[in-house]
Design brief:
By secondary structure, this protein is mostly helical. It folds into three domains: 43 residues; 97 residues, Type II secretion system (T2SS), domain F (Receptor-associated Protein), CATH 1.20.81; 252 residues, Up-down Bundle (Receptor-associated Protein). Helices cover 75% and strands 5% of the residues. Helix 3 packs antiparallel against helix 8, helix 11 packs across helix 12 and helix 15 packs antiparallel against helix 16. It starts with a strand and ends with a helix.
Length: 402
């Protein structure tokens, strides 16, 4: 149960301080009133790491909540009764806890955007900025609908990408499992034959030497390899948390043939969709650029956007510094230039993101079609090499016996 620190005036007219436990601020005020004290100040005591312990709610679930809230508000239901209805529909879990906290905060008189911001496990920074603009501009219902639509589009795009990669990943896992299985369980069964060939004065063929060496290494040091992989993963994740390493990795990603172009277009699509959505919902340009730069997923492009924001703050246009970065393709830059001149930037940016989504779908389909046969060929070559390493000694023994 939350704790609230308070400063109050008692019946003797003296100021007292203390803390009280209550489900929400309203209940805490009621407890103090029953103690014949007049609250002067009361605030919730934040426990260290409290937000990190709250389970993250799936974006799709958050979008559904926002759509329900928007529908209720559009049909004349007030904010608090709308949230009450949503709370009644939510099953026990992180989402219900967040909605209960949201209801209590609004009931206590806290601003709507601040109440949303207090639920970081449900609503991201983009959603909070859109809600803040909607609350200030008296179009909260439309803002909630647009934020929900944006989340649905993002989730749909991520689902398509994941769905396209499932089959290649399965191929890779099955291929690696087949090779490791052969090296660990099949190759050792031929050791007697290899020894006979060496004892008879013959030499093992090169594929056999390589296959046997790898098999022996896996068989004798498998636990060391697992430990090395585990340590490598932990070390790699730790390094990726540093900005310098992430920047080098993001730069390398953009240089990968075929894949680099897909990743760049994906980052640009996220940037234009987020920026267009924020501007369409009345969020100021500089704040929109700050949020959209963090949504790209690529530090190289994010830095270019932040530099563009500095230029905009100095009174320049957005297009020129973005063009100078050399990351965004010229046709897209041309549309941004025209959109700025015609004061239609938010609509053009959303259209650009939709066009990029269509391009990405085609490029991903083509890339997956190329990856599947390429992986089959690579797996086939590796398996053939192992089989060749096992069969060549058999042929040499047959020649010696003949």
């Amino acid at each position: 149960m939350p704790n609230f620190r308070y400063t109050a005036r008692n019946s003797d007219g003296k100021n007292i301080t203390g803390s009280v436990s209550a489900p929400n601020k309203r209940e805490a005020l009621s407890v103090l009133a029953n103690q014949s004290t007049y609250p002067l100040r009361i605030e919730e005591v934040k426990t260290r790491g409290g937000d990190r312990r709250r389970k993250r709610v799936r974006p799709v679930a958050a979008a559904e909540v926002m759509k329900q809230m928007a529908d209720l508000l559009n049909n004349g239901v007030a904010m608090l009764p709308s949230i009450e209805i949503i709370v009644d529909q939510c099953s026990q879990g992180a989402l219900r806890d967040a909605m209960v906290d949201l209801r209590d905060r609004i009931a206590d008189g806290e601003a709507i955007d601040a109440s949303f911001a207090a639920q970081p496990n449900v609503f991201d920074e983009l959603t909070i900025s859109i809600v803040r603009a909607g609350a200030e501009g008296a179009f909260l219902e439309d803002s909630l609908q647009r934020a929900a639509k944006f989340i649905d589009r993002q989730s749909e795009m991520q689902g398509r990408l994941l769905g396209a990669m499932i089959y290649p990943i399965i191929l890779m896992v099955m291929g690696l499992a087949a090779m490791v299985g052969m090296l660990l369980f099949l190759v050792p069964k031929f050791q007697t034959m290899f020894d006979r060939l060496i004892d008879s004065g013959g030499a093992l063929p090169f594929p056999t030497v390589v296959t046997l060496s790898v098999s022996n290494m896996l068989f004798d040091h498998w636990w060391k390899i697992l430990i090395a992989l585990f340590v490598g993963v932990i070390w790699g994740r730790t390094l990726l948390r540093t900005r310098r390493v992430r920047k080098h990795v993001d730069w390398f990603k953009l240089k990968i043939p075929v894949v680099g172009n897909i990743l760049l277009l994906s980052s640009i699509a996220k940037f234009t969709r987020v920026l267009g959505t924020l501007l369409a919902n009345g969020v100021p340009m500089l704040r929109s650029l700050e949020i959209s730069s963090a949504s790209t997923g690529n530090l190289i492009l994010a830095e270019a956007i932040r530099e563009a924001a500095d230029s905009v703050a100095s009174g320049e246009t957005l297009a020129q510094p973005l063009a100078d970065a050399g990351l965004i393709p010229k046709p897209i830059m041309a549309m941004i230039v025209v959109a700025e001149e015609s004061n239609n930037l938010e609509n053009v940016l959303v259209n650009i993101s939709e066009n990029l989504d269509a391009q990405l779908n085609r490029k991903i389909d083509i890339a997956v079609r190329l990856v599947e046969p390429l992986m089959l060929v690579l797996i086939g070559i590796n398996l053939s090499f192992i089989i060749l390493g096992l069969l060549l000694p058999v042929f040499r023994l047959q020649e010696q016996m003949g």
